[in-house]
Give the backbone structure.
Amino acid sequence: MTEAQARRQILDLIQGYRLTQALYCAAELKLADLLFENAKTPVQLASECQALVGPLSRLLRTLASLGVFQQLPSGAYANTPLSLCLRASDPDSQWACAILAGTERYKAFDKLLDCLRTGKTGFELAYGMPLFEFLKERPASARIFDQAMTGLHGAETAEMLEVFDFSVFQTLADIGGGNASLLLQALRKHPGLQGILFDLPHVAENAAKEIAAAGFTTRLAIHPGDFFKEIPLKADAYLMRHILHDWTDEECLKILRNLRRGFSPGAKLVVEYVIEEGNAPHPGKLLDLGMLVATGGRERTAEEFRSLFTSAGFHLE
């Protein structure tokens, strides 16, 4: 890489905030939804989303240059495969992720330097309370968070259900299972499987509506609780996806030891998302920085997981 190329590349990295906010605005204005059936001019879009024509045209032009929307010869704009990922009307889209990135997480990341110097989370510094307390007090934010997690993990869930054969189990317990989206996909794929959702009471209450709407109340039991107190569940497979990364090693040990106390003999615990050592690029490394800011948790390598599980009385396969 030449010096000029290095300067260009580092400048692109430095100015990433512009793209985050541009995508947030596109999501907030629901431009992909407005363009879903047919192309529209900036004048038409501005009227429908209550924006000024001039600034909106500049936003669209910028995003179209990156493949998010496309400008037609007529001057109208249409969707692209990338912009379709920002549809608010699609529950599996990245719309909620864009909203989250441009609002609450953006404000929290503004405190990253303070995180490095104080050991506090960016979320606490920005909002005066931990993330999960914030979500408990703000149902609207909690809904966006749950939707973002569904969109973020949708393809990942399908891949995981291909890799892990849950059909060999009778009951799958999802610890911290949120809105039950993963369990619902697992139960659809494996008709003989029963599910248990374990999460905080206010989360479980919202999940109950999703489960009822999906028609799985007879196969998916809801068990409200706090995994820092106890996890009194009996299953032959337990799942903790994107849960341990929310917490410090000490907090993870408490969770895992609570699980171990009631762990069914011969049962399996599935925990995924392991980051690689060294300089190898890996999305988990940026996510690790996100966890530092959001909750004070962290992503972990295979060896870090091995140490954690061994200390809690588990054997890592």
The radius of gyration is 22 Å. The mean pLDDT is 92. The first strand starts at residue 70 and ends at 71.
